Amino acid sequence: MSADTRNRSGLAGALRDLPRNVWNSIFRNPVPSNDVERSATTFTNFFLHIHPVKVHPNSLRPIYTMGLGLISFFLFLILVLTGIALMFYYVPATSQAYDRMLDLRGSVAFGTILRNMHRWAAHGMVAVVFLHMCRVFFTGAYKKPREFNWVLGVVLFLVTLLLSFTGYLLPWDQLAFWAITVGAAIAGYAPVVGKEIQFLLMGGNAVGQEALLRFYVLHVAVLPAVMTVLVAVHFWRIRKDGGLSRPPEAEIKPDLEVTRPPAVLDPKRTYGLQGLVRGPLTRVGDLPDNELYSWPHLFRAELFVLVVTVSVILLLSLAFNAPLEEPVNALHPPNPAKAPWYFLGLQEMVSYSAFWGGIGVPGIFVLLLLLTPYLDRNPKGVGKWFAKERLLANTVFLTFVVVNVIFVIIGTFFRGPNWAFVTPW
Amino acid sequence: MRLALAIGTFLILAIHGVVFYNQFSHRWERNQVAYFDQARSLAKSEAERTSLADRKPRIEQIVVTSFGETRVDRCTTCHIASDDPRFVNHAQPLRTHPYSPALGDLEKNGKWERRHKFSEFGCTVCHDGQGRGLSPEYSHGQDHYWPDPLLGYATQAGWRKDFLPMLKGKAYLEANCAQCHTEPGFRGTPTVERGRQLFFATNCYGCHKIEGLSDGTIGPDLSEVGRMWKVDYLWARIADPKSVLATSIMPKFNLKEDEIRALVVFLKSRKGKNFTETEIQRFKVKTAGGAELVQATLRPVVIKPGEMVAQGGKLIEDRACTACHKLGGRDGGIAPDLSFQGLLKDESWIFAHFKNPRSTVPDSIMPAFRFTDDEFKAMTSSLVSQKSVPPLGSPAATYQALCQRCHGEKGDGHGLIAEHLDPYPRDLTNAGFMNSKPFARLVDSIRNGVPGTSMPAWGRILDEAKAKELLDHIQKTFVKDPRKEPPVRQVDDKNVVAMSKESMDRGAGIFVARCAGCHGKKADGKGANALDILPRPRNLRNGWFVNYASDRRLAESILYGVQGTAMPPWIDYGLSRNDVGDLINYIRGINPKPKGDQNAGAK
């Protein structure tokens, strides 16, 4: 690009030019100093090209997104990396799993911190993905044309729950064993196929070796693969659906008359492929817009979120050790036996009615969540937190969130032996 | 933004620094370096010194495969001097494990040789703790979740503070010695042996099962109790049963601290399976039961004919009868008062009750203890001599002294020991029942008792007049409704249907159709509806009671129902007098006539 790309001659020259040439072969562009280079950097770097060259300032407002989607993604990255490291040591066998946990805690290099990071990032991801979903709802960001991305998001939330749930069993301690026993029992309340699903999940009638192996394979292979593919589609759809949602008044309408009807192609002109697909609307020239270059605005913000996420997870992992309870004793359930915290709302509801609490109500919730963008077709109120036009929808959703959170809190803190009501103080 | 990024990045770097420091600076490494230094100064030869200088800290571990599941013991990583005899006087962790003839160690020419070599036994086989751990807290098992903390050494945060000092000491290690040294009377495990004897002497075996030793069914099976529970739980469960489980019916035994310790160590040694047993031996014990072992372990007392009463009294005290019963100064609060047993029961009844409590009270929860007949006879003599009549003043005082323990302060049948009695004591506030029975019958129940139940005959203590006064008091205080004599029903005194096979068969058919819902298919009073009914349906397998109830009473109860209870008048539901006769024949047919007499009574 710049002037000093000319090479020196001879072998000595090649060697002297080697570092620069290697660097330039990897990074096509120098650190950008003008808008063309900023565009080129974003455009030509594999890891950056998933971003647009320019972003709308609304997408950069911290208060609008709170970075929740990014945090979810970074937590997923942390989980993949620490998870792979833990896989080097873990054995999915009932006779060995717990001993391996003890080794991780005691004698394996960096075992404790890796396990802590994996555990806290997993809990964090469940929470953050849920908060991300709340953000998208309260800003009306699921509306046309982003309906399907919302559906993908709901599915990703379910996959996150499943990943966390399958990972819960792997330490093979009392906490894991009984939480999964309870959780799998909830699946058994489904009508007609409930017991079959439970059997398929556990590979038997009780949690044992088969269940451990199944959960392991689901946790380290199947679900991460599903997650990766869905996350990729989720991201791709953000670009194809026109970036993050924003209020219509934030758009600057280009003062440009479209003189040509989009459907009529001029046989004498050459069209780019994109122009064909989207219609010949390729804008050329100095169009007015208020967008900012991704480099550096977007990337700096992303780096900031990454640094904060990693710092928090590291701090948590340093301060709190992931729990490891007694080895599994199938004859001696703790009282109460509790599911993982994010399923305690379900367990609380199950304590009132097995079917309605465990399957009926959550099933209806998930169905409603999936159908939300197709039921709520009011196009107004996009891109604003708690828009007035969406008072009804937001109130309904807020009620749903609050009720679930209350159930989780009751299940976590206010339930003692025999699921009797206790006060935690 | 830039400042925040810089701070965040610095934070990440700092945390990594801490993590790496933790990773590469272990306490055990410092311990090992200290050991190498000290050993070098103690070394005698140059070669030893150089080899010590070359040693680098590393994790030491012993893989133990001969004792149950494979263990990985890394204890010697810190306790690296445990087998180095020069470190006898050093402070832990760099201290030689003691040599002792008691452990089987041999001294030859000033050199000790271990009987239990660490390379074969490891550490946790004897000491418990978590072999894989490398920090003191985890490896000693002080972490609340670890099931086997170092026996007699480590305690956990959740343990009761007042028990902590008692849970320490070498005696606890015997529980693990006994995993291999199982022979009774082994010299190395005196505490286990004492505990085993106490298990029988204090009658634990009456309620608890330990495979191969005892077969009690009232309390939990203790065959694997040492594997399931930690010593603090065992201690609390014996020293103060209700503190662990408020609904526990286990009595609080009058045990001294060293006796509790012996029992805890003995129970800790019960792990279901020990290292010496083979599967086939276990199977044999399971099929043969442990009765012979019990008899062998109990040390029978030789009874001298002249000192029966005194010796019996001592036995009653030693064998913890007052853990349940009331006698002398002690009251277990679970079983009846024995203070005036000689006035209530005669010798043959008490002896029969000792031999098999259910032969006299079919639903008694009293365990059948395996004492010798002589011992039982002595204890019987002692009980028969208990004739101190309680002070009987007003009828209210009489009620308080004799009736309240079962029928309760309010007369509602919820007395102190009521929940342990079957059938449950009568609710005297139930006016429907009380006023549906003739006065004479209530007097009879008091004076002659109700056979087959815990209601004794008070006839030798209360004469006719006193019993009537007591009943008047009950009527006024508890029943509250004025006394009404029930109408005399037209019921035949003798069963109208003669006893025969055919009649019994017909009765069985009617019973299944009409009665089994409450009284149960087996007529044992445990039908499907029984739990919803108070008072509970009568156990019609109670031979004593069935034999005592006259034809007339049975027929009247069936035909006209029992007021104040769930028993309906079957005459309204289509049972004829002949049907009732068949039912009575069926009920009498399934209950062989019991031998002997139930109550001393007024006779």
Q: Helix/strand-derived class of chain B?
A: mainly alpha
Spatial order of the strands in the main sheet of chain B?
1-2
The fraction of residues assigned to DSSP E strands of chain B is under 5%
CATH architecture of chain A: Up-down Bundle
Task: Give me the CATH fold name of the largest domain in chain B.
Answer: Cytochrome Bc1 Complex, Chain D, domain 2
DSSP helix count of chain A?
16
Overall number of strands of chain B? 8
How many individual helices of chain B?
Answer: 28
Q: Helix amount of chain B, in percent?
A: 40-55%
Strand percentage of chain A lies at under 5%
Q: Please state how the strands of the largest beta sheet of chain A are arranged side by side.
A: 1-2
State the shape of chain A.
globular
Number of domains of chain B: 5
- Give the termini distance of chain B in whole angstroms: 103 Å
C-alpha-based Rg of chain B, rounded: 34 Å
In the CATH hierarchy, what is the class of the largest domain in chain B?
Answer: Mainly Alpha
If classified by CATH, what would the architecture of the largest domain in chain B be? Answer: Orthogonal Bundle
* Most extensive interface: A-B, 30 and 28 residues
CATH C-level class of chain A is Mainly Alpha
